[in-house]
Design goal:
272 residues, alpha/beta
């Protein structure tokens, strides 16, 4: 059995330039930096976009624990606190029917957001700006943090995957990620993909309503554009998951190993 690493301790915190002075300090977008031991560092950095339905952040599972795992493998981890929706939940709105994995066509342009509204969409756009600012800040500190400027990308969980995807759709230059990984996090906005889009890794469970179908649709949009994409659909369990020990009892638990292998195959970490 592979035991999980202990939680990491952040070494640095930086407020992002997308923060506004009138915002409460606890709500201002920021990054929390977790660096591996210098002798382990391989130059790769992953900006972690935690899930939480755009209303909270699953920081402990999606950032702190994940950072320890990445650091153990020589990867710098950057936890992103992005803008969240503070508006009250809409009253009287009916949720649309759940879509299973066999109907990705239900989500044109891979838009799997079940409840678009002006407030929610504006928050997604703000969060995407935060994510782009995080990539830029990592590049600006690349030498200091022993990171390669060509090996910086996203790993998003749930809604955080939607934030990372939205950021990737509108980035150029210093803000453009070199790769995009999303863990049960479909797009929350319509996507437009170009052939030179960053390589995409998708991981999800088949029995995750809306999410699995939305991610199949996302994979198809990437492939139709001629861009590089890979899709892992796990057949055991339902709904979200986090870093798991390797017991051999499920296939979902191997998602983190599959991600490392993908990063190696793409040349973002050393093939050891």
């Amino acid at each position: 059995m592979l035991f999980l690493p202990l939680a990491a301790l952040a070494q640095k915190q930086y407020e992002l330039p997308t923060a506004e002075s009138q915002e409460d300090e606890k709500d201002r977008p920021m990054i929390e930096v977790y660096l591996p031991k210098e002798e382990l560092a391989n130059g790769c950095a992953v900006v972690l976009c935690p899930g939480g339905a755009m209303r909270w952040l699953s920081w402990e599972s999606d950032v702190v624990k994940m950072a320890a795992f990445l650091n153990e493998h020589g990867i710098a981890a950057i936890g992103l606190r992005y803008h969240l929706n503070k508006a009250p939940m809409p009253q009287g709105m009916n949720m649309p029917p759940m879509v299973d994995v066999t109907h990705p066509e239900a989500f044109p342009q891979a838009d799997a957001n079940p409840m678009h509204n002006e407030s929610g969409d504006s928050i997604i756009r703000l969060a995407a700006k935060d994510a782009k600012a995080a990539i830029r800040m990592v590049r600006e500190h690349a030498d200091e943090w022993h990171v390669s400027k060509e090996k910086i990308g996203f790993l998003g969980f749930s809604a955080g995957g939607g934030v990372a995807i939205a950021a990737t759709m509108s980035t150029v230059g210093m803000e453009r990620p070199d790769f995009l990984c999303t863990n049960f996090g479909p797009s929350l906005m319509p996507v437009t993909i170009t052939e030179d889009a960053p390589p995409l890794l998708i991981m999800t469970r088949a029995e995750h309503p809306n999410v699995a179908a939305g991610l199949v649709a996302l994979f198809m949009e990437w492939k139709k554009a001629g861009a590089n994409a890979e899709l892992h659909i796990y057949g055991d369990g339902k709904g979200p998951y986090e870093l798991m020990p390797l017991t051999g009892e499920t296939t979902t638990e191997a998602w983190s190993s599959h991600m490392l292998q993908w990063l190696k195959a793409k040349g973002f970490i050393d093939r050891k």
